[in-house]
Amino acid sequence: MKRTDARIFPFTMMALVCAMMLFAAGSADAKPGRSSLRQLTICHDTEFALCAASTCVATGGFVRNNQGKKYPAVTCECPILVGDNVADLNGGNMKGSCTSSNPDFVYSTFEFSDSFPQLISGTWQDAPSVMQVCPSQDSFSQCWNWQCTRAGTVDGFAIADCTCPLEKTSDSFVTQAGQGDSSACAELPVGGPLFFNPSSTHTDNGH
C-alpha cells in the first residue's frame, strides 16, 4: 500500500508521544541509560511493516537480536506499507539496510501517520491513529526493527507476520492498538514505555 498522506515528523502531541514510545532508552536494543536516537535512519520510499496498532500472541519461544540477546517472543500481524519510515538499521535483527535481501521478508519500522490499516473486529480497514496509555501491569510487544514474513493479502491489504520481543515496564506504556479501547492493553499490544506517570502531568495555563 503506497502512502500518500504519511507525515514523518508532524508537530503534534501524538508525534511526541510516539517518539518517546519508539526511540527512548529502554527498548529491547537500548542499553540502560542510553538512547538509540543516534542510530535513526529515514528509509525513503521503501516497503515496511507498520505494527503500531497491532496486538500480539506469545509464541512460548524466544527471539534474538543482533547481539545475540534472547527475549520472550510474540507474533503479530502487521500491514505492509510503502513510504518514508524511521528505522535503526542495526537495531532488533535488521542487517544494516532498510530492506531485506530476502524477498520473503520485510522489516517492521515506523512512520507517523494520521491513519493506516488496522485489524478492527476481525476486518482489516484503514482507520485513524488513536493513542492510549496502558497500565504497567500489562505487557507490551516491541516490534520496531524486527524482521517479518510476508503473509499474503487480506481484505485488500498486504500483511506480514512479525516476530518481536515481549517486554514489561514499571511505568505506563503507550500504544495505538484498540482504537482507544482499554481491553487492548491486555492483548500484548505493540507499544513502548512512557517513563513517567501521566496522572501526575498537568497543563500550565498560567495560573
Overview of this protein structure:
The chain is mostly beta strands. The chain has one domain (13-27, 42-194). 5% of the residues lie in helices and 42% in strands. The chain is built from one helix and twelve strands, in the order αββββββββββββ. The protein has one helix at 13-23; strands at residues 40-50, 56-64, 70-88, 105-109, 115-120, 123-128, 132-134, 140-141, 146-154, 157-167, 173-175, 191-193. The protein has a five-stranded mixed β-barrel. A hairpin with a 5-residue loop joins strand 2 (56-64) and strand 3. The model is unreliable at 4-26, 31-38 and 196-207 (pLDDT under 50).
List keywords for this structure.
207 residues, mainly beta, five-stranded mixed barrel, three-stranded antiparallel beta sheet, 12 strands, 5% helix, globular
What is the topological layout?
Blueprint: H1 13-23, E1 40-50, E2 56-64, E3 70-88, E4 105-109, E5 115-120, E6 123-128, E7 132-134, E8 140-141, E9 146-154, E10 157-167, E11 173-175, E12 191-193
Parallel strand pairs: 1-4
Antiparallel strand pairs: 1-3, 2-3, 3-10, 4-9, 5-6, 7-11, 8-10, 9-10, 11-12
